[in-house]
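agent> Task received from the user: take the single chain below, predict its 3D structure, and emit structure tokens. No templates, no multimer pairing.
agent> Plan: (1) validate residues, (2) run structure prediction, (3) serialize to tokens, (4) report one or two observations.
agent> Step 1 OK, no nonstandard residues flagged.
tool_call: predict_structure(input=
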Amino acid sequence: MAGQAHYSSAPPGAGDPQGGFRFTAVSADIPRATLEGLRPLMAYAPPPGASTEPTAHPVAFAYDLLGPVHAVTRIRSVGQDYTGRWGNYFCHTVLAAPEELTGLRPVELWGAPLWAETPAPDDGRPLPETGELPLGSEAGPDRVRRLLRETGPAGGRLLERLLSAVLGALGRTPEGGADGSGPVVLVASSGDRVLDWLTAVSFALPAPLAAALTFITYTDRPDEEHRLLVGTVPEVWERRGDGHGTVFHLDGPLPVEDTATGSAPHSTGAGLLARAWAEDDLDVFDTVADLWSAAPAPKAPVARLGTVCALVALTRGDWDAADAAPAERDALEELLGTLAGRPELLPPEVHRSLASGPPGLDARLAARLLAVSPAFRDAARHPLERALLTGTFPEPSPEPGTDGASGPALARFVTGAVRLRLAEADVAPEAVRDGAEQWLTARPGPFGDTLTALLPPDPRGSAAPAGPPDATLADTHRRAVLAGVLRALEGSAALRDAALTPEVCAALTRRPPDPLGTAEGGEPWAPAPRTALRVWLTGAGAHPGRRHEAALRVLRLYKHGLLGEEETCAAVCELAVPVPPRPPDAPPGEPPGGASPPGLLRRVLWRGEG
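)
tool_result: status=success, residues=610
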């Protein structure tokens, strides 16, 4: 249980034979080393020019981290000491282990009934432990609501800037200690106004992060403060302020724009949390707290909060992937990766928000969210289909030392399609087909082994060619990719020349003639007859049987009306019919009698049918 200590200027007594500022009473189990660590934290002086009336002096309410012990301190001016000298004060400190503060924010102890107004008698008896820490009623959510109702939109903007500055300070010093950059300073004539904004900041943060925020509501030496959030009065700041840190002046109307000295950059977390208070949407804080508990804890708590807030903002439509800082986006993707396949870790309101389809998502994030929340399935379909059609799906990272293109264009498309989790979102095969066609038409290049790797298993038992792993590409989408490939090849002679290398053509020629799974009796190459010509002419090689079979397949395409006489004749002549020598007197380009395309085709067809 929490211990206590009283400190003031007092005459010699049972606790100390010397008079002056000293500990007049302490709990029995507080080590002497802890008390010595407390002593530097207990200085106090009224503002310059203040009246001699102690009740008019501001209260210094502070929170510090002393290694394994947390200290909450209340210092109030009491006027004269036992010798009649002015400047005495009474400091009451509560010392607690971190677990004794779990679930509460130190600012909640403001106004708690445990604070003594006068020191306990210095009679040698130890102070009792506090038991369970009783909370005050003056620093809580209602105080923040009143503040933001009073200050309006300007108050919401100030809170966002203040939170950004505080999170920056916490990020630099995760343990709440000084880092040389100066504190965040609140300058106001009223201690109540400092407490207002301290309460707003504390209740915007998850309780574990608020427990790392050291503060003091009033100090006469803000330039020497080690605490992260510091309050003072204008009279002190005019004399002691040296410009270090971030300073917010709170007297008078709040500025519309950011005029704080050393203002912090925009923070997604600060923006989300400030808007939640401004709109009195306390469900946001519950969602952030739930995700904070569910998310794996990285080393930096502030980074953890920023990532959680980015996810909440994304689900609410307040986060744009295109405008996000790369580090924040990377952290969000990493968080979604750790939550993949574990929808139970997400609060119900996150699933509900995802089901409604947050706007502005790119394909990579949509695929990540799809792996986290089944509720996102219908909403994910549109960004995934759009990505396929625009070629903006996630590609694998390029290998070091390359020019940025990681493998053949077809392999990159297949890998990107796999990463989009198309089957889970029930993406239309037509979108996959059209996407593959557009992607490949714009990127003519060799297919490598990828095309044959997409074909169905060879029933003849030959070894499957090497290719990119496509185990997670559903069969429907695999067929759609092949359909897109054929459409791209058929529409671009440049792509046929670049993609259909002799090795690819040879592999396709040796495979069963059914790359698209056409129903029995159909012509599998009907959608791409000119592509078929390229494959057969290049891939048949010198093997007589394969050349004969290829010639017959060319004739089938001709009989179906898919090829013209000239190109059919030329292909058949190359594959199966020797070209007779041209007579010396024959006109150039004029075939000999009986060798014109119509006559030659009639002759070949008659022989084939016979």
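agent> Step 4: summary for the user.
Residues 361-499 form one domain.
agent> Done.
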